[in-house]
Design brief:
The protein is of the alpha/beta class. It has a single domain, classed as Rossmann fold (3-Layer(aba) Sandwich). The strands form two sheets. The chain has a six-stranded mixed sheet, covered by helices on one side. The chain is globular and about 45 Å long.
Length: 241
């Protein structure tokens, strides 16, 4: 697959207010271990980054099919995600966008509190040759510190920091949400009712489907905001971020 154009996007004026990566604590990063199967595991949350069976298939089943993608792509379409992790969800979406020949731009905005080092990200993605094949340009930009990258009309932005602080200051509204934090029992901050209400009521566009997919792990009590249009799309394994 060829990506026609790759460019690093400059920081927009006023980003300190609207896209506040600066709220992240200095040197706050992912602490990654590796299990016997070579799967990356968050040492902070004691949870794997993606399905132990097939993380790419998990992403396609839960997040792409669950949001009727790529069929719904159109110019200006906005995907938003809680939990960027290895970037596997983003790359699966990029593959779908390119394979469908969908018109751009399509935007993919992800919120990540503990960004992964480039070397760890590359090692994790090596388990998925299809994703690894399209990851090079993004990984090179990530390694240079870029957090906004235009991959040929597929525009990626990763907003670093605690989503409880950064999401309320994001001006966007998503047409599809990928809610992909770690297991709610181990990462309850990302599944709090206030944050999910923020997602559902202030940052979801009117055209979004009533099926906003949470992660394939089951959501605990209080992880679904009252009065919102949510249903759980069943997954096939552990989360894929």
């Amino acid at each position: 697959m060829n990506i026609a154009r790759v460019s690093l996007l400059p920081e927009a004026e006023g980003d300190s207010e609207t896209l506040p990566g600066e709220v992240m604590v200095e040197d706050q990063h992912a602490e990654v271990g590796w299990n016997a199967q070579g799967t990356p595991v968050s040492l902070r949350f004691d949870d794997p980054y993606f399905s132990l069976d097939d993380g790419l298939a998990e992403t396609r089943h839960t997040f792409l099919a669950g949001n009727d993608l790529p069929a719904r792509f159109r110019p200006g379409f906005q995907v938003a995600e809680l939990g960027f992790g290895t970037g596997l969800n983003m790359l699966a979406t990029l593959i779908a966008f390119c394979a469908a020949g969908a018109p751009g731009p399509v935007r993919f905005t992800s919120f990540e509190a503990f960004p992964m080092a480039t070397a760890d990200m590359a090692r994790a993605l090596a388990a998925f040759p299809e994703a690894e094949a399209v990851a090079g340009d993004f990984l090179a930009a990530w390694d240079r510190g870029a957090r906004r990258v235009d991959l040929g009309g597929f525009i990626v932005e990763v907003i670093e920091g605690d989503a409880r602080e950064t999401l309320p200051r994001w001006p966007g509204r998503a047409d599809a949400w990928f809610l992909d934090g770690f297991n709610p029992a181990k990462n309850p901050e990302l599944w709090g009712e206030r944050l999910l209400a923020e997602v559902a009521r202030r940052h979801t566009g009117p055209g979004a489907p009533p099926r906003l997919t949470p992660p394939p792990v089951s959501c605990g009590a209080g992880s679904k905001p009252r009065g919102s249009r949510w249903s759980v799309a069943p997954g096939s394994g552990a989360n894929a971020t």
